[in-house]
């Protein structure tokens, strides 16, 4: 494989740091050209020096000045603000852009990369949830590949390699999160610390809460709809608590293919960065003889209404998934600030959706406006239901 030049948008987050671990394992295969972060100037500067990066962007003005000082004696060019990413996408020579920011803020940098024809390794699922039609159209128009990094979508993508059969169904697996066996009564008393204790994966805070409400699976169902052009009825969520199967595809001859490994995000990250090559990785191997159980069950939509909300919202379509995503982000951050009870997260989303005006074919301005209005409405409900 020829050495690939990569850009990592959101390099100080969980996915960004694991992507750099992949690079550290294969310095002969990857050269990091650009790193970006919001506010973590010290870590970004350290990463830039360690990986001999040419350019970094900080979205926050204060963090920019801090990074500029830290990198004053180096050759690293330091830029500020979100618009800098757009400019760099135009001028930089990179093979793959890893989009690993958290939340809706990942949308515009992702679109910028696609508009300039870069292959995007997409970890930022919120951009597809909020603007799936726009993102996929931009990718097609500029012949820019979208390579999934989310473990489920990477699993599906891997299962589809070299297949010529017709797809019948996607089976999206879910660990079930920390509250899989909680009763409806127990669901009312969930603390922040409990919700942050995910049984299988070690991830950022926002996605960990999404896993606890199972909204993460709802967002991933929408993501799968856009990435693989499958109707929502043909995407089934299957709870698989061991998290060994990362998702499956079913063909029209009845065959099901699954991708398995120990849960480790470096596999899907590396697969997207090196695609279609599959370099080695030093992670623990599966030991089937030691596996005690391998189980599957249906998600409980009563206790986890976010899944139903996601299916209903995708069926309505237009800008409504964008409103749903914005309301969810606000509700999750409020829960993490301990200002909203866990059980109210779906209630905030439901209220915001009922107050949102549907736009059938939203352009970027509509999406930005929808996101903005949904956040204001969500904050009103969060204020009403404030825990104190
Ligand atoms: Mg996932």
How is this fold's topology laid out?
Layout: E1 4-9, H1 14-25, E2 30-37, H2 41-50, E3 55-58, H3 61-70, E4 77-80, H4 82-91, E5 96-99, H5 107-115, E6 119-122, H6 125-141, E7 146-148, H7 151-160, E8 167-174, H8 192-195, H9 205-213, H10 215-228, E9 235-239, E10 245-251, E11 256-260, H11 266-274, H12 305-316, H13 320-336, H14 345-354, H15 364-384
Parallel strand pairs: 1-2, 1-5, 2-3, 3-4, 5-6, 6-7, 8-9
Antiparallel strand pairs: 8-10, 10-11
The protein binds magnesium ion.
Structural class by sheet pairing and helices: alpha/beta
Measure the end-to-end span. 57 Å
Radius of gyration: 20 Å
Low-pLDDT stretches: none
CATH hierarchy: architecture of the largest domain? 3-Layer(aba) Sandwich
> What composes the largest sheet?
7 strands, parallel
Order of helices and strands: EHEHEHEHEHEHEHEHHHEEEHHHHH
Question: Would you count the extended β strands for me?
Answer: 11
Q: Which distinct ligands sit in these coordinates?
A: magnesium ion
